[in-house]
Amino acid sequence: MRTLLSVAFLSLAGCAHTAQPSSSTPAASSSAASQAIVAAPDRPESDRALDAGRHPAALLEFVGVQPGMKVAELMAGGGYTTELLARAVGPTGVVYGENPHVVLERFAEKPWSERLARPVNKNVVRVDRELDDPLPPEATQLDAVVSNIIYHDSVWLGTDRAKMNAAIFRALKPGGVYVVLDSSAKPGTGVNDAQTLHRIDEQTVRSEVLAAGFQLGAESDVWRNPEDTRDWNSSPKAAGERRGTSDRFALKFVKSR
Q: 42: how many CB neighbours lie within 10 A of its CB?
């Protein structure tokens, strides 16, 4: 179990269209503002090293994050995505960065604390909570909640995902979005590969989130890789040179009421 946990935690360290195929690319899908955030000279070099595989400007554009917004990231880990969101919402916005206890204890406490000490992250609220009920009572009327390559982790963590998705629905304002990106498992495999290959069946995510009352608002193929055989471990340590090349689905769900 310790080995599996270690691999899973390492996966944490390190554009849109309306439910129809698209040939968009990161450069074409990302606004100048998003590109400027990614190009900021004070971003850590360790973050920049992950950019090629993560397409951060495209992510910001897909989420639709703007200055002044209230957003949250689930299982923020060391904070790569959280800092991008903090830069995007600016000093008038707020970002709730959530981490479960086991992630903090085994992996994230040091890099997360160091991240939050950086001035650019002064608008980040640290949230130490479990995924079943990931956001504090004051996190209401949110504009967006982001789950970036961690939905599969909720499976091996034993999370009540129906409860998690319902909590996110409550925290969002009408019109708010819940963005889920993750590495694709083979169709029909459900959650079987969540712990071994760090992948999840896209249809499973769609079904679970829609069951919470969301509507599918958009999806993106920016992170797609049709050459991915989906039979290898996509966690950073196991992936090696293939890190950042797994086929990833990107879904934007909307709270319509």
A: 8
- CA–CA distance from 127 to each of 47, 105, 248 (Å)? 21, 14, 27
Edge to edge, the sheet with strand 94-99 lists: 124-128, 94-99, 70-73, 142-148, 172-183, 248-254, 215-220
Please name which of 137, 113, 109 lies closest in space to residue 124, comparing C-alpha atoms.
113
For residues 155 and 195, the answer to whether their CB atoms sit within 8 Å is: yes
Amino acid at 26: P
Distance CA 235, CA 238 (A): 6
Q: Maximum Cα–Cα distance for the chain, whole Å?
A: 45
Where residue 134 sits, what CATH number does that domain have?
3.40.50.150
User: Could you give the number of structural domains in the chain?
Assistant: 1
234 to 31, 182, 251: CA distances (angstroms): 29, 10, 19
pLDDT tens figures, 12-67: 433 344 443 333 444 444 589 999 999 999 999 999 999 999 999 999 999 999 99
Domain span at residue 212 reads: 2-254
Q: Which residue has the tokens 């179990």?
A: 1
Q: Give this prediction's pTM.
A: 0.88
Residue pLDDT, tens place only, 90-134: 999 999 999 999 999 988 999 999 999 999 999 999 999 999 999
Per residue in 220-244, pLDDT (tens digit) is 999 999 999 999 988 766 556 776 7
Place of tokens 């703007």: 66
